[in-house]
Amino acid sequence: MKKKIETVETTRLNKAISERTKLSRREADKAIQDGKVKVGHHIETNPARQVGPEDKLFYNGRFLKEPTSEYTVIVYCKPRGELVTKKDPKERKVIYDTLPKKYSHFIPIGRLDYASEGVLLLTDSAKVADALMKSSLERVYNIKIDGPVGEDMVQAMKEGLFVEDASKGAHSHSKIKSMQFAPFNEFKVVKTSPNYSKLRVSISEGKNRELRRFFGFFDRNVLDLKRVAYGWIELNNLPEGKVRFLDKKEYDQLHKFLKTSKKETHDAQTDL
């Protein structure tokens, strides 16, 4: 017999502060540790403190309203040479240097690395961002690699692959070494030659430079990587460095997705 679990939705204090201000999660951590945040009438210095809907939050003496249920999602055509972060210690260019200031509080849905380009979704709703990031929606990429596409590579794209040392293609500071690569959802070899090859691939995640590591295992460097679709949302002809809103059809599909996602989460909250 299944028994529903009665739950009260809570979140970490640093996440709640970031959602209600223009602070990044890291900046929210510092603000909390510096004693600038109150929960009710008391200063709270623990960023991991769980807070719920009944908790009143203050930052620098200002009451922070809860985010509204309305949300906006935008599509940004990220160029190469921009980091998906608020600030970079090395002072490299970040997406918020290009995005209009009215989107400075928008949350990126997933990431594209410094050398990658294409579809980057951003939203003003942490719940929407979380649902989309945790989803298995397909991410579609156009890729150019140096060298030909071999049969072993084709087989790995079809069947998946475990690599003990997947450091080639990884970020230099990554601590992740071994990786399990799931079979690609779809792939098409557009061109293969001794000098370079072009592919169009669809995967369901794309974390930790997954594609660069995959092709790196076969001693292929990724020369170009462009995300052209995230789920049903496509880049189309959006110019580099520009932004567009979702159209009505895309929002309708997003509403359906979020409704289904919420139901699946609710159904999972049961005891057998």
Describe the model.
The protein has 272 residues and is an alpha+beta fold. It folds into 3 domains: 3-63, Structural Genomics Hypothetical 15.5 Kd Protein In mrcA-pckA Intergenic Region, Chain A; 73-135 and 233-259, Pseudouridine synthase I, catalytic domain, N-terminal subdomain (Alpha-Beta Plaits, 2-Layer Sandwich); 139-230, Pseudouridine synthase (2-Layer Sandwich), CATH 3.30.2350. The chain is built from 7 helices and 19 strands. The protein has helices spanning 13-20, 25-33, 95-98, 126-133, 151-159, 210-217, 248-268, and strands spanning 3-4, 11-12, 37-39, 42-43, 50-51, 57-59, 62-63, 73-78, 107-109, 117-123, 139-146, 161-163, 179-181, 186-192, 196-203, 222-230, 233-234, 243-245, 270-271. The strands form 5 sheets. Strands 8, 9, 10, 11, 14, 15, 16, 17 and 18 form a 9-stranded mixed beta sheet that branches. The chain has a 4-stranded antiparallel beta sheet with strand order 4-3-6-7. Strands 1-19 form a two-stranded antiparallel ribbon. Strand 16 (222-230) and strand 17 form a beta hairpin. Helix 1 crosses helix 2 (25-33). The radius of gyration is 21 Å and the shape is elongated. It starts with a strand and ends with a strand.
Radius of gyration using CA atoms only: 21 Å
Strand content: 25-35%
Stretches with pLDDT under 50, minimum 5 residues: 1-7, 265-272
How far apart the termini lie comes to 6 Å
Shape: elongated
Number of strands: 19
Determine the mean pLDDT: 89
Domain module tally: 3
CATH superfamily of the largest domain: Pseudouridine synthase
Please estimate the helix content. 10-25%
Order of helices and strands: EEHHEEEEEEHEEHEHEEEEHEEEHE
Tally the helices.
7
Under the CATH scheme, which architecture of the largest domain would be assigned?
2-Layer Sandwich
CATH level 1 name of the largest domain: Alpha Beta
Structural class: alpha+beta
CATH topology assignment of the largest domain: Pseudouridine synthase
Largest sheet: 9 strands, mixed
